[in-house]
Structure formats: C-alpha cells, structure tokens
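CORE FACILITY INTAKE
Project code: CF-77B
Contact: R.S. (postdoc)
Sample description: multi-component assembly, two entities in total
Requested service: structural model of the whole complex
Turnaround: standard
Below are the sequence entries exactly as provided by the requester. Do not edit them.
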Amino acid sequence: MGTPRLSSTPLPGIGVRYDLTTREQRRLSVVAHRDGGRTLSAYRTDDPDACALSVRLSAGESAALIDALMPAHHSPNLLSTTELGLVAERIELSSVSHWNGRVLGDTRMRTETGASIVAVLRRAEAIPSPTPDFRLAGGDTLIVIGTREGVETAAAILGRE
Amino acid sequence: MHSSATFLIEFGAIILGLGLLGRFAGRFQFSPIPLYLLAGLAFGEGGLLPLGTSEEFVAIGAEIGVILLLLMLGLEYTATDLVSNLKTQYPAGLVDAALNALPGAAMALLLGWGPVAAVVLAGVTWISSSGVIAKVLGDLGRLGNRETPVILSILVLEDLSMAVYLPIITALLAGAGLAAGSATLAIALGVAGLVLVVAVRYGRHLSRFVSSDDPEKLLLVVLGLTLLVAGVAQQLQVSAAVGAFLVGIALSGEVAEGAHGLLSPLRDLFAAVFFVFFGLHTDPASIPPVLLPALALALVTAGTKIATGYWAAKRAGISAKGRWRAGGTLVARGEFSIVIAGLAVTSGIEPRLGPLATAYVLILVIIGPLTARYTEPVATRLTTRHRQPTIPAADTPQDRDLVPSPDTPIDT
C-alpha cells in the first residue's frame, strides 16, 4: 500500500476538483469552490463517473469536518473522557444566547440533564463552581461534566437563542 | 405628470416586477431568464402596457447588461485556462461548432433570410448557456462527476469562440462591403489576439494596477476600465461585448475574485434589464408564425448538442452513462443566444430573427435542465433493451487522464 495520492482537475469557472481512490477502490472527491465552499462527493460503484453522494459544505462546515478527519483528532471541546462514561466538555454561549444576562439557576441544568457546570471561563479568568445565582453572559465558556447524553442535552439547552 | 416621476414609476415597476418573477422562478428551481423575456414581451410593442419614458434608459441599461455579462464570464476564467483548454480540447470545440452552428445557418437559409442572418442564427444555436448549465450541475449534485470537466471545457471553448465570432457578426451587420469588411475583421481579430497575448503575458501587471483593498475603489476602477475598453472596442468595430470579455480575461487572481463579488449584483440587475429590453423589442404577435421553425430548430439542436457531449465525453474516456449525461447537460441555450440575436435585432436585418430567437431560447432554457436530468436514464433504458444487460464494470484502479493538464500529485 503506497501513500494515498490526490489528483487535481481544474474545473474552469467553478474551482478545482481533488480526487482520492481508497484502498478498497472507492473514489472520493472534493470540489473546492472559489468562494471557499466545498462539495464532497463519493462515487457509485456501478457507475464510476457519477456521484452517489454530493454534499455542499460551507467553509466552516468543511473546517469542522477536517478536524474530525485528522488522525490525531482531539475535539477542541473535549477535556477528557473516562472509562466510566463521564464526559467533560466546553460549551460556549453565543452573544445572542437566550441565557445572556440570565442567572445560572434559570437553566435548571442539573434537574433537566443530570450534568453539572463545574466552572465558567470568562475572558482571562475562570470562575470555579458557579452558584445558581451566577449571572451568565454571551461569550462565556461553560465546563460541563456528565454522561454523554446529559452533556448533549446540556449543549442543546445552552444553545437556545 | 413630470417625466422624471413617470420614469421612476415605470422603471421601479419593471425592476420590482422582475424581482417578484425571480422569486417565483426560484421557488420552482428554474432559471428566471425565460420569465424576464416574457415580461419584456408583455410590456413592449403590441404588448399589454407599452412603456414611455423609461425606454431610453432601458436601452442603455441593456447595453451595460451585455457588457457586464461578458466581463463576468471573462473573470470566471484565467487566460491560462483558455489557452490550455484550447490546446487539448480543440477537436471537441470544432465538433461542437460544426454540429450546432450548421442547423441554425441552414434554417435561416431555408427561410430565405440571406447569408448574414444565417451567420447570426448559427451563433444563436451554437453557444450553450454557461450560466444555466453551471447551476444545473450544482443542483443535480454532479459537480464531482467525471464527465463535468468535459462539459466545462466545451463551454470554455464556446466562450472563447465568442471573442472571434462577435467581431465577425458586428462587421457583417454593419453592412460593410467585402474589402472594408475584411479590413475591419482583420483589425478586430488582431486586437482580440493582441489582448489575449497581453493577458497571458502581462495580466499580472494589469491586475496589480487595478488592485485595491477598498471595495469602493476597486468597483469604480474595474467598472470604469471595462466600460472604457468596451467603448474603444466598439469604435474599432470589435464589439463592446468582446472588449469587456477580454478585460475580464486579463484580470486575474485576487482582483478577479474581488471584482466578481462586487459586480455580481450589478450584473444581475443589468442582465435582467437586458432580457426585458430584448423582449420589449419583440412583438408578441410575431412569435406564433415562427413557432414551428423554432420548435424544429430546438429539437434538432438539442439532438446535436447531445451528440456533441456524447462524442466529447467518449474522447475523454468516460463510460456510456457519463457520455449521455454530458450530452443532455449541454442542451440549454440562454443568455448568449439572446446577446447574439440582440445585436442582429438592433441592426434590423431580419424582422423575424428576434421572435425566432426568443421562441428558441424560451423552449431550450426550459427543456435544457430536463434533458440534463433525464437523457441518461432514457438512453440507458433504450440501449439495454436491445442488448443483454451487462455486468457493471468494476472501477478501474488507475485514474484515466481526462483533464487538460496532467494529474498533479499533491504533497500530503
């Protein structure tokens, strides 16, 4: 097995297409559009010229995907995972968040999800063990610990706008 | 009523109407071009609501629309793109020209319109619509397909041919005699060739001169330069559109991308005005008599485009299904057929040419996306009925070269 080879094909007026053939003889391609968008395609096995799947990605979506594809992948949000099934994650509040200016108790986080907010990172400081009357602000990063499901639900709650 | 107020009301109503039509077209996922043409038909001579004061402005707007359409087309390509496509794909370009231009010319001669109209109609049936086709490829999720580079390189060659073809019809339509016409044509081709060489060699310097970090200044410089060159080209009988196209080719890199983003909205506005203008100058009553020839021409040239795509894809080593897809995708005609017909209409050589081109484009801009979608399944069904179903071939491990430039490995 040699090193995988990407070949490139110019698509005049659209951008460039990069092709990859895997060890299992499946073909993938990425079309790099000039506006920074990408189209990810996988080819059909019965018709090697046609795409079985073709997904248009924005620049941000492509970046997230690249991150997941990296062999030495560590999600920037993930602090650590233990074998007991507990997960710790950083969740950022957006500036247009529903919780901007509301107190932590309003999220009813522990009741709803079983996950705990163990610290809040704000600019250059970290506030450990915030109390229920702690007032959240857009741009805060919350460190949440809980089960995988619990943390996912917490992320959904904190994502409200 | 004050004329400026009347103008604002009329022009505003036109633009607003176009916007609403565009939204309507967007809802059904098809090109708004036919609707703009129909809107023009509705407002023009013999239409429902003849326009008054805004006529003159619409005419100028239409001219700017054509210039911007070609400028943007030029910005899409780099000079290197054009030259490399020309070197490797010219047989496909020649087949494309022969198969698709001849039916148009033959139709004009059959109708007894004379040789000049024949050359014009040949152009109308020859040039596919890069705008419609690029959109269709994206919508059908075929940008990654292996026949797509073949389709695109045919479009590139057609667009490049426009740079030679437009001066020819400009000279012909000006009614120049053979000696004067040949001289004009020689000048035109010389200028076009010179600009192309300069663009390949010195495009960087021009881009550096135009380049600006400030969008406002970039917009003014690019637009000013384009209109100026277009005007000079018009004076030299090269046709304004070609001048604009060559400016677009000469600009490259960051400048081209910046200008592309800035000028897209302007292009959309003025191109819409251009299609309306074309419709305005076509009397709806003149369409029914030419409907039959238009339909026949549309069917024949849909067939010839499919054949062109099939042949070009076969030459690039694409499998049968991909060949049919390439053929079906190329069928759509659109903006450039109208640009070519527009030149003829304003010079007034043949009154029935405009209506015929309108009907022809209306038919093919609607049929084009459908043939792109269904040619392959239909052709596959028809061809397998006659043969034993074959076992699908396994993917070939090695990549065939179907690209203008050789595969370039990328360091990983």
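Facility notes:
- The interface with chain B takes residues 3-14, 17-19, 21, 25-27, 29-31, 34, 39, 41, 43, 45-51, 53-54, 56 of chain A (CB under 8 Å).
- The CA atoms of residues 37 and 59 of chain A lie 5 Å apart.
Invoice: internal transfer
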